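Quick note —
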Amino acid sequence: MLSKDGCQKRRERLWRALPAALEWVLIADPRHVHYFTNFLVNPLSFSGGERGWLLLERSGKATLLGDNFTLRSRSGEPYVDDEVMVKWYDHRHSVINRDHALMQAAEKVADRLYGRNGAVEAEWLPVGAFELLGLDHERHSVRKEANDLVGKAPVDLGTLVRSLRRTKEADEIALLKECMAACAAGHARAKEVIAPGVTEMEVFLEVQKAALAAAGRPGLVYGDFRALNASQPKAGGLPTQNKLAEGDIFVLDYSVVLEGYRSDFTNGYAVGTPTAGQQRLFDLVMAAQQEGEKTLKAGVPAKAVFDAVERPLREANVADKFAHHAGHGIGLAHPEAPILVPESEDTLLAGDVITLEPGLYIEGIGGIRIEHNYLITETGYERLSQHTISLV
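Predicted structure written out below.
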């Protein structure tokens, strides 16, 4: 789970990035509430999909807002100074609109915000919250009374937090490594069970069981669990009842999500003995990944990484069969910046966690994709995913 020290460091980075005139911020994106406090509504609980809001004040105080069931349906202890909880359900009375309960919690802190400059995650707040807090609808991220900010661009709080998320703290890296260890266990199990006659769904169930057993706790498993072949070289999505056949390549491109953070890495497993054509595809995507690895370090343009990954494929005259990004960032979302594509404007930053994901999809031969996860450093990278990439 996220640590108290890590949450505090993320809050400090936020305040350093905000205008000095701002005295408070209201965080509403559930991922960002988690990012700054370790509060996450357990997605496998009866409050899955509900949310709390977080009030941060420049003094250092952190206050969590929500209803009694939401604030108790958490996956870990939140690192906050106060909780403003509104009773939503008590096992005796009918319930009110749960969103109204959240608004009532916000109303309890509204008085101490009036007359003080603040910013909100506008994309995640309902109109009623703006009215409750006396916010300017046109500028929507600063108060009407913030005269010293008039004429300046409003604070885009959500975009700012997303940019801060790219630099992972030690607790985030530790959690990502847990996700990746679980994901690697699923890959190892897939290699044992993939065979002609086995369904995609059967592989998925074995992968899920192995991954969550390795994690030692509940989590989410999603991704591509599909068989590719000469007549269907590209397909994705959740598994079907399709039975694997000799000559297929089973592409296992999946994530394990633990406490909001996720892995994302891939291998293509031959069903039976690989053909010469399949082996050639595998050798090319391996070369592409290795070329991409040579470029990885802070300061490198994302489009330069894409160019390096694509180079072996261009030299083999199959670059037109590589129909997607060369990789992307991961963390609290999938995908997130940086995006490794030809016209990307992103640059690799120290603290980014990214993927390298070359693939080839050729009718008459089949399709394959491989992927590893990497932590970007000032001088290079640390590979975080430890699964074995091989056809058999």
